[in-house]
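FORM 7B - TANDEM STRUCTURE REPORT

SECTION 1: FIRST PROTEIN
SEQUENCE AND TOKENS:
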Amino acid sequence: MTGNAGPEPANDEPLGSPPRPMQARPLILGIHGLANKPPKEEKQAWWAAAIREGLRRNLGEDPRDLSFEFVYWADLRYDTPLSEDHNREPYYPARGRGPFPTADGICAPTLTDRLYRIVEWAQEKTGHLVLDDLIIEHRLDDLWGYYEDSTFREAARDRLRDALMQHAGRPLLIAAHSMGSLIAYDVLRQLERDGRCPPIDHLVTMGAPLGLAEIKHRLAEEHGSLRVPYAVARWSNLGDREDVATVGTTLAEAYAPNAAGVAVTDCPVINAYRRPRGGVNHHKSYGYLRTPEFSEAVAAFLDGDGWVASVEMSDAEGA
């Protein structure tokens, strides 16, 4: 699948953005990924709990007053939230104590990754993205709906767009998981064309499918050249190599730096989430939110305004 490049700002320069007050309170803005979810309040509380758990166990730190807001769009696709009886992968504090495992910068491609790169090369040569179409339609149904249903697509974007404009004067860290990373990228590129994208201190994508050939083609059709959005001062892409959503080219390979020289930093991580009844899910949001790499990103963001305080971990907290 190919398409014409979308519009680019004149002279490849960032457009204007809303001014920021001198002492604005920093905000972490999360957006979830694929599939139905528990009710918004529950999902938001679980994300915040996973972030706090990671900060405590990885860094021995805890924010005095973590400012976190959640962009929820599952209700646009599903009539009723996921019930407790049907939720096989809830948040719960992980067993053990001390820091969660880290990949130590090792980013060796898996067999699945190598095979996909061969297929991607063949798809690019022929111009037919058959495999990606099958994966997206039959395994990533919400992603398929995002592109086939324009009403749903624009409504999901509006949720994030409204939140960004509401908090335009605050330091912002966007934590975008899975399909949420696609929505975030689309919205940031749209807002920069409109000349009203607020500064984003740190964009953290987790388990992002932005390296899939089909997704890259779709993005290029709408936005033009693939690059870091102008408003983004830092972009970290967290990926577990066992997470099938992260197959394909690294984002640093696929997305060029912006005019300020900001490039994507691909951060290999270990997503250690386990289901309560056993089994792993290397794509689960809670696992990504508890990684040392995400904790370090959050702590650095909050430290800029002195919002993180050291705490002593008790045995109960680490259990």
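SECTION 2: SECOND PROTEIN
SEQUENCE AND TOKENS:
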Amino acid sequence: MKRRSLIPMIVAAVVFVLSSGCSTNRTDVRRSLDQTVRSADSSPKVIADYQPWFGDKQHINVGYSTQDPSVLRKQIQQAKDLGIYAFAVDWYGERRPFLDRSYDLLQQVAAQNQFHVGLMYDETEEDNGHATDDALEAMDKAYRAYIGPSAPFRQAYLTYQGRPVIFIFPKRGHTDWSRVREQVNGWENPPLLIYKDEPPAQYASAFDGFYAWVHPGPKGWSPDGSEWGEQYLETFYQKMKNKFPDKLLVGTVWPGFNDTKASWSLNRHMDRRCGKTFEDTLRLFRRHDDGSHPIPFLMIATWNDYEEGTEIETGVANCDKQQQSRAAGASGR
């Protein structure tokens, strides 16, 4: 089966599974999606961003701890049922011990359940002059504990064409990524570093690819939540293909956004539109995955960020009958 014929099947199945209420149909579609993704090496692998901080008192109570192995096993099984290949886990190195411990446990459970995990390194946010040293120390820890030849559960780590993948989530931009690149090039198998959006020009050569992230677009956050990121995604896909044709491109989809539960809330809101925001971001991914610049991964933002309202762990629609009627009318159904 050719690659292009698989993409509509994958994205349509994801939408149906995450929004359907029928358990029988969910089981059938989940099985079909899982087989489709895993049977085609050239297909984009579906990954989901994962927050490992629940159970830490600094974050809201969502009813579980990310340090409970039984919870992790359940989440991994749910993700596999949806055809998700891996979790990309927010990680700060040893700056956040709770998160590091959660990741350690998650990689162990992933290895035991034929699943995959990868790191999404969060850059030091404080302008304290330590960002580069923090990143170097974090990469060293990642290699020793999770990726390198001595890492006990390295078989579960996310790779592409045999190389480990590390996503980078930038904050203040004070890290010297050229030094980081130089350090990780000394690994037995140097990683692919994937940066959010476009890096500072002086560090472009340090990265192997780029991924998009939840963004409302150039008009900014609208009070009614109607800006869902269409122009941002169009610009991202076109710019990365044209400006960086030799780099990896990671597509991203999201269900919506609402940070009112977060302690850092800025009252930002992106309406889920009864699942249509998720469908529309998937539609743009499908349009731009045209074969001329293959996209190896499709990232879902996010699996479980309940504080910013991007979670798909419980579904993507989250709407009442009145909202469903409005959404159906808007889409012409």
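SECTION 3: OBSERVATIONS ON SECOND PROTEIN
The chain is about 40% helix and 15% strand.
The chain has one domain: 3-331.

SECTION 4: SIGNATURE
Preparer initials: ____
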